[in-house]
Amino acid sequence: MRLSGKKIIQIVSNDFEDLELWYPVLRLREEGATVDIAGEKAGEKYIGKYGVPIMSEYAFKEINPNDYDAILVPGGWSPDLLRRYEEVLSMVRTMDEQQKPIGQICHAGWVLISAKILEGRKVTSTPGIKDDMMNAGATWVDEPVVVDGHIISSRRPPDLPDYMREFINVLAK
């Protein structure tokens, strides 16, 4: 198991894209990683766009990003909610400063924009936020997955196999 001993934080809010949250969580657990789920409140049920629930184990304010090897930001509409929490933005900034893997897919780029970490970075996302990404100083490309150092970005659910392959490769290094 390539990721045995690695700890990843998966942040969550309502209206996440079900596959973009669950597929990475399950793939990382298959590789032996511990994936902790954090939401605004611990022990809260969050519902995806298509009705698939997930229960948070921790509240954002309980998370110390120094205890984790990577962070995942799901897509869907939840990034618009997630970027409103200073604790989330602080986690993302800390991961960026420490060059720890940051995974973002679809609309998750909104969180990285609000954390102000995209200047000069090459990324992808759903085409719907292409202008937002570029206005934040990123170079946007239309590819299934883009790896720019420790930031791994992807466009949408059909790209999940490419996204997770690259995220796992970066995390395993």
TrEMBL record:
Example GO biological process: proteolysis
DJ-1/PfpI domain location: 6-168
Keywords for the protein's UniProt record, in alphabetical order: Hydrolase, Protease
Pfam families: DJ-1_PfpI (PF01965)
UniProt keyword Protease, yes or no: yes
Molecular-function GO term, any one: peptidase activity
Cross-referenced InterPro entries: C56_PfpI-like, Class_I_gatase-like, DJ-1/PfpI
NCBIfam families xrefs: PfpI
Family: Belongs to the peptidase C56 family.
Annotated protein name in UniProt: Protease
Organism: Sutcliffiella cohnii
